[in-house]
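Lab notebook, page 48
Experiment: co-folding of the full assembly
Goal: obtain a model of how the components sit together before planning crosslinking
Operator: M.T.
Materials (sequences as entered):
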Amino acid sequence: MANNFTFYSPTEIVFGRGTHTQAAEYIRKYGGSRVLVVYGSERVVKSGLLEQVVAPMRQAGLVCHLLGGVVPNPHLGKVYEGIEIGKREGIDFLLAVGGGSVIDTAKAIAYGLAEPDRDVWELFDGKRAAKACLPLASVLTIAAAGSESSNSAVITNEKTGQKRPYDDNLARPKFAVMNPELTLTLPDYQTQSGCADIMMHTMERYFTGSGNMELTDALAEALLRTVMTNARILHEDPANYDARAEVMWAGSLAHNDLTGCGNGGGDFATHMLEHEMGGMFDVTHGAGLAAIWPSWARYVCASAMPRFVRYAVNVMGVTPGADDAETAEKGIRAMEDFYRSIGMPTNMRELGIAPTDDQLHAMAASCASACGGSKGSARLLYEADMYNIYKMAL
Amino acid sequence: MANNFTFYSPTEIVFGRGTHTQAAEYIRKYGGSRVLVVYGSERVVKSGLLEQVVAPMRQAGLVCHLLGGVVPNPHLGKVYEGIEIGKREGIDFLLAVGGGSVIDTAKAIAYGLAEPDRDVWELFDGKRAAKACLPLASVLTIAAAGSESSNSAVITNEKTGQKRPYDDNLARPKFAVMNPELTLTLPDYQTQSGCADIMMHTMERYFTGSGNMELTDALAEALLRTVMTNARILHEDPANYDARAEVMWAGSLAHNDLTGCGNGGGDFATHMLEHEMGGMFDVTHGAGLAAIWPSWARYVCASAMPRFVRYAVNVMGVTPGADDAETAEKGIRAMEDFYRSIGMPTNMRELGIAPTDDQLHAMAASCASACGGSKGSARLLYEADMYNIYKMAL
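Observation: model returned without errors.
Model output:
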């Protein structure tokens, strides 16, 4: 059954070898002149990448200011720092050179600069909706978050430990420069965490209780199979350009909403459950998703059995069991086997964290609060359900 | 092997039941105030659809002028008529209510109004590139051309018989209202011609000699299988909303470039061959494509054998033959069987036209001229090749 939907993914994609030097011309095209370039670790400085991106910008007459030091599960403090620089320097365009954390930070700064008299955290805290956002774009260095073409940003308030998403089409990036060469030297754990994140963005849209389009399902399944194939290739051969390209492009399509058209909105409980783990323990997001998903899946499976059966057969390629429940369980186990085969965890112990029971209760309470009480489409989860899933995932 | 690519599909999709009354709010959002509403036959007037679209626009304070009478293989004369109205009335936004011919006419009018001192035919005749285009959008009534989110327009110069495409991102529509309900009463021949056109937009991108991405292939194959399934459903049950929805959404994704990312540009010789048939005989575009494709496929097959083998197995589901050539031929035959099963022709006789040998030569000469001498990626075709394919297709 096809639900009504809207789809809007205006980001111009510039994909392939050598493209990272082209940011300057696209910033010009989209009206930028005073640019804040946001990045994460010093790796992008030492590798020479930042200079390769910024030098053509300066040659093109763009004023460039730099803001480094964005960390995974990016902090609100860095966002405030960027907003201050932006106000002082008259910034009119944000360029993120990095992965999801850097892009999300740039999005938050862009919101903050467009409404300079309001506290940007109010967006993430659910207090208000944005009315404007400065134009932004990215040179992507990690295939994972899909933030390069999504409307999402996730920021952690390091003082409260809250990790909160805010979604708004105002922050859809103007362009994304995607050069898979920039990911060739990524450590395997980061690569595979990225693959887990990419798959989850589509799985969140796939496991629903509110109807799905056949075309959307078929595209989602094709994408998931392709990511699995190439994740396995990269686990053995990390410098394989074509596999890097497949994963990088999949990362955008997995989260630009293409794989959710007509599905009624998706589930996204797994993401919300992981946000609390990331907020409390600073785990790698994709690995955190892998660690919580099997428990979520077993907990909600009976409420969305046809979806789990379809997933088991069409994505994981399992032979159907004696009944639907057995087929679904075979699919979940096949997914755990896949995670382990690429070095990803399937529970919190394998992830390397051991929350106390009090911490589990605190995470469940915070998750429920962040969700406005409940979350989910495959099955609507309340705080008690969230606690149960955390406990299963130990 | 992944070729570098750019991807840009900014059109906002508004999809589902009842959405056709929402055009007004989206025109406002995209800055329109004086709108030329373009449509085709009087069917959209008599059915009440035009009034349902335009009444909310007038209520929203938009100035609306109407231009009807667009025909299939739309004429340059109607474009000029629209440009004159647009100049006189100060039009700043074009809304097409119809299918590909109506949208393409609106695109051409939008080009003409943005550069009012130049002859718009120069774009289609390859004399110059556009520098500007007025904003435009559509309320889609036929799933076929994909023009609602593509950068393409095809116009026929009725005085010379030339049917010519012009592709430019300037003409990407701002939004597309896609209500599958509007297609429930389409005659079967038009429905199936639409399905043939949709499939061909992806097949043109699939059959290449210059490399392909695995993800793009997987998405393309998923889309093609979905269209085939739903074309068969609609042949038996034309009022099936879900099947109409699948086909309508596939029509956009088949031609917004998603299914060509990384393929080096696609083939598109079949489209150019058909344009001459459409220019000379005024055949339905999708049926014309079906009539010429099997001959094109057999003519170029040896030059792109791995693609034809993959298509045969992954899309048509045939069991591989003794060698690649046999597998490819089984795939082409399966495609002909599919065309026949939905009432589509597989050659010109079945299409209902019988060009003379002189006409075949004239079509080949005109096609080669329109292509700047040659066309194709699976195999590069020259005028003699085009003649051979036309002759095979009699």
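Interpretation: The mean pLDDT of chain B is 96.
Next step: discuss with group before ordering constructs.
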